[in-house]
Task: inverse folding
């Protein structure tokens, strides 16, 4: 039986992450990085594509589960006929090798436990050779090797191309399983004591969460979302992946299935705002520095997304041996949207670096010259159509949001030069560009009869991204055009009280068949817009509803189906959790605005 997306919890080590189901099965894990091939791919296929289940014999889903305090250590509890047992799952922040540790502890009575592990490298397509070496079971195929042990040792055997264990735990007894990956040509890394690693992991996470300076309403939700964002950070570079998964569908049975294990520039401003507003200066600086490294080079080559280290080539492929989550094929790796022209990213980069500068992050000597280069290129390109924020695979259009972000790019350059007159740059030139973009958007992107900004020039369709117009400062919140846009977007794009991204889908519009769910970050933008336009009570009510959509451990996917009441899309989604944090800060009056 396919578990719902929201049935999964996240564990990770700041370089990769795993999804653990309510039934005790780890169904998704890429090693050694977020963007590596998966060794557990049951999430996108079946058990034959790799998983690791650890649960009471014959047990189905756990009775309850939760993270331990402000950490990414997961505890799942089963209450059975013969007793109660707890399984603690976590990934220690690694020194050398990535490891998953699963500690079984008897709480009361006596519980028979079973474990089944099927390692399938290269996204479920490669069955490894498994041998026993001392206390370990070792699985090797090509460049990958995985070492599995238990402490104390339990009965373990091979069966049907899987490794199985059975044992019994009584009250107070513990059995720890440790799975370690390393390159197959290198010696096995030294053993790590799982109980020491657990204590250290809890200490690390609690210490990190304790640095949060936000103490306003919904602090627990904010902390959980910040922990999730931290878990999606690739520690060695500071890049933040959009999600740790690929191809979780935007429509069950549909084809809108994309690989989100990369870093999008569109997230950069809101990420920096959120991190800086709550006191995480070190993480904000790391993200800013990743951004500067990634976008360095010819401005004409600026991409919308990059790999974890700033890699540019992310070729899209399909994996036909995986049937897809809930038969939603194809399963894809890589992302061809990397080659799209999305003019809004220039504004997002300029805005991000302006936020970093005004917040007092230490300046990078080359950053301003890079910004001038980007802006000079945008000056010659902003009048062209593009694929826009939502990465449509249909015809290019003059997207209003893209033009607004071109205005943002020029505006932030003007602000920077006004605040720092010693910097080089022609402030008059950027003012002229800013004024021209503003004038054109108001003339060609606004429908006066309906009193709303539209998705693109000459289109009747609406776009939730226009809700960002007051946030970025393009128009003040009390401008009648802003109020009209908020009302029109809510009326036309509303579905079950939440928001879709835009009015129309289909091959002639965005190049793809089928539809999608409501987009959660757009609903957070609606909360912000309602609050900014003076409707704080309505905003608060919607925010409370969005908080209620989180699963039992506080996680959100990209989208939500209000009819089926299910989360959709890649999971957990950084953009959704960024939206939650920024909106909570906005409602509390603690946020920063563009």
Result:
């Amino acid at each position: 039986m396919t578990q719902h997306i929201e049935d999964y919890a996240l564990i990770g080590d700041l370089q990769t992450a795993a999804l653990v189901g309510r039934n005790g099965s780890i169904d998704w894990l890429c090693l050694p990085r977020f963007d590596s091939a998966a060794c557990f791919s049951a999430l996108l296929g079946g058990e034959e594509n790799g998983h690791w289940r650890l649960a009471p014999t014959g047990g189905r889903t756990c009775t309850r589960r939760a993270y331990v305090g402000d950490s990414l250590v997961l505890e799942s509890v089963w209450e059975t006929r013969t007793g109660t047992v707890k399984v603690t799952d976590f990934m220690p922040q690694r020194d050398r090798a990535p490891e998953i540790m699963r500690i079984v502890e008897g709480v009361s009575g006596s519980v028979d436990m079973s474990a089944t592990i099927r390692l399938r490298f290269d996204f479920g397509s490669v069955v490894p050779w498994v041998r026993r070496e001392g206390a370990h079971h070792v699985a090797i195929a090509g460049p990958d090797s995985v070492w599995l042990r238990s402490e104390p040792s339990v009965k373990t055997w091979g069966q049907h191309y899987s490794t199985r264990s059975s044992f019994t735990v009584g009250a107070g007894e513990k059995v720890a399983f440790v799975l370690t990956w390393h390159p197959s040509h290198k010696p096995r890394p030294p053993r790590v004591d799982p109980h020491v690693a657990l204590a250290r992991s809890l200490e690390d996470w609690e210490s990190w969460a304790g640095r949060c300076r936000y103490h306003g309403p919904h602090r627990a939700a904010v902390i959980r979302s910040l922990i999730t964002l931290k878990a999606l950070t690739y520690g060695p570079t500071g890049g933040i992946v959009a999600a740790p998964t690929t191809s979780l569908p935007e429509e069950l049975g549909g084809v809108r299935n994309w690989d989100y294990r990369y870093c999008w520039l569109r997230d950069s401003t809101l990420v920096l705002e959120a991190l800086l507003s709550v006191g995480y200066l070190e993480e904000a600086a790391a993200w800013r520095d990743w951004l500067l490294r990634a976008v360095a080079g010819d401005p004409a080559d600026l991409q919308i997304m990059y790999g974890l280290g700033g890699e540019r080539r992310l070729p899209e492929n399909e994996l036909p041996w995986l049937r897809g989550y809930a038969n939603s094929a194809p399963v894809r790796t890589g992302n061809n949207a990397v080659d799209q022209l999305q003019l809004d990213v220039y504004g997002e980069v300029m805005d991000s670096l302006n936020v970093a500068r005004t917040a007092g992050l230490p300046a990078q000597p080359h950053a301003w010259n890079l910004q001038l280069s980007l802006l000079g290129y945008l000056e010659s390109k902003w009048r062209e159509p593009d694929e826009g924020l939502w990465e449509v695979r249909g015809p290019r259009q003059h997207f209003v949001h893209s033009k607004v972000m071109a205005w943002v790019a020029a505006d932030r350059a003007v602000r920077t030069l006004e605040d720092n007159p010693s910097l080089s740059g022609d402030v008059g030139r950027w003012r002229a560009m800013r004024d021209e973009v503003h004038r054109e958007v108001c003339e060609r992107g606004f429908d006066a009869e309906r009193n709303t900004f539209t998705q693109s020039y000459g289109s009747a369709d609406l776009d939730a991204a226009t809700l960002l117009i007051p946030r970025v400062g393009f128009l003040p919140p009390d401008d009648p055009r802003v109020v009209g846009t908020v009302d029109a977007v809510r009326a036309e794009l509303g579905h079950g009280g939440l928001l879709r991204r835009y009015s129309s889908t289909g091959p002639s519009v965005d190049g793809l068949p089928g539809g999608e769910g409501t987009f959660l970050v757009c609903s957070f933008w609606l909360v912000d817009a309602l609050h900014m336009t003076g409707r704080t009570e309505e905003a608060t009510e919607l925010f409370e509803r969005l908080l209620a959509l989180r699963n039992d451990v506080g996680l959100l996917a990209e989208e939500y189906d209000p009819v089926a009441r299910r989360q959709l899309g890649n999971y957990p989604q950084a953009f959704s959790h960024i939206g939650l944090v920024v909106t909570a800060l906005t409602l509390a009056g603690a946020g920063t605005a563009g």
